[in-house]
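Lecture notes, part 5. Sequence design as translation. It can be helpful to think of inverse folding as translation between two languages: the language of shapes and the language of residues. The source text, in structure tokens, appears below.
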């Protein structure tokens, strides 16, 4: 965790960490408490303006928008974490097969990755949802597999580069198996690239879930979702525009924070960027002399 102080030292890193922590806390707190029951319908309180007891107002059914957003954060976190775990497993397996196996298998994996990466993740998720029905797990698996392929494509060349390093060759000469070499030497050295790609994938996973739920292919109707809330409210945008701003704002803020977290992680963990930045700071500034 030596990179954490360097991450916090960057304004983008601080902003991203604060937003991510707030979203995680909202998801955790919503398991036990929300200001009001997010499923409670109160027709007498329809379109209540922001105030007490509805901090963000209510929707067309009288449901509290803040409670709906807090409950929807659970879906967002579940999709981001779940798809991140799936993408991690898929990315590591495909990258390892494409870097550590025999030439025939490596070429076959490379062709498979090129084929899979040609299909948009949202299209794959919509096709799977059309067959199996809208479900949170369908979104997690389809998005995770899709972005796992992207991670494998980026990580595989890095694994091949590290594979030619002297310490990897020394480990192989000392009797380490390919899996031991992968665990001790290869994965730690490609971790910065992998973490950055995973952060960006989680950002797109949040956006994909919101988009799929907006189109009706995402989480089931029993699961609160920012995308479905946005779809429910968008037809009233000309009458009650403020109600639509809240779900759109939290989706935008979350995706922006995860993208900025990926950029900040890349700067904090990449030693070449740190070295270049330090060299630039130490370089003397040349001021041209003036003549009388």
């Amino acid at each position: 965790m030596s990179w954490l102080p360097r991450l916090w030292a960057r304004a983008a890193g601080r902003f991203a960490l604060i937003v991510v922590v707030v979203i995680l806390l909202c998801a955790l707190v919503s398991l036990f408490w929300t200001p009001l029951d997010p499923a409670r319908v109160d027709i007498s309180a329809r379109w209540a303006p922001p105030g007490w007891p509805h901090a963000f107002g209510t929707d067309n059914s009288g449901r509290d928008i803040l409670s709906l957003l807090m409950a929807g954060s659970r879906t967002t976190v579940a999709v981001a974490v779940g798809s991140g775990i799936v993408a991690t497993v898929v990315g590591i397996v495909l990258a390892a097969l494409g870097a550590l196996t025999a030439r025939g298998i490596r070429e076959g994996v490379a062709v498979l990755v090129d084929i899979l990466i040609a299909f948009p993740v949202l299209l794959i998720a919509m096709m799977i949802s059309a067959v199996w029905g809208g479900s949170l797990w369908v979104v997690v698996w389809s998005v995770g597999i899709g972005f796992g392929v992207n991670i494998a494509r980026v990580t595989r060349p890095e694994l091949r580069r590290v594979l030619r390093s002297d310490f990897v060759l020394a480990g192989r000469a000392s009797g380490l198996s390919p899996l031991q070499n992968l665990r001790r030497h290869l994965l730690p050295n490609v971790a910065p690239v992998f973490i950055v790609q995973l952060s960006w994938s989680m950002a797109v996973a949040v956006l994909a879930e919101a988009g799929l739920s907006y189109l009706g292919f995402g989480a089931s109707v029993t699961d609160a979702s920012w995308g479905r809330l946005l779809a429910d409210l968008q037809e009233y945008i000309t009458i009650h525009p403020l109600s639509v701003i809240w779900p759109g704002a939290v989706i935008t803020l979350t995706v922006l924070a995860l993208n900025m977290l990926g950029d900040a992680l890349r700067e904090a963990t990449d030693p070449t960027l740190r070295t270049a930045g330090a060299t630039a700071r130490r370089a003397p500034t040349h001021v041209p002399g003036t003549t009388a």
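The translated text above is only one of many valid answers, since several sequences can fold into similar shapes. The two ends are 56 Å apart (CA to CA).
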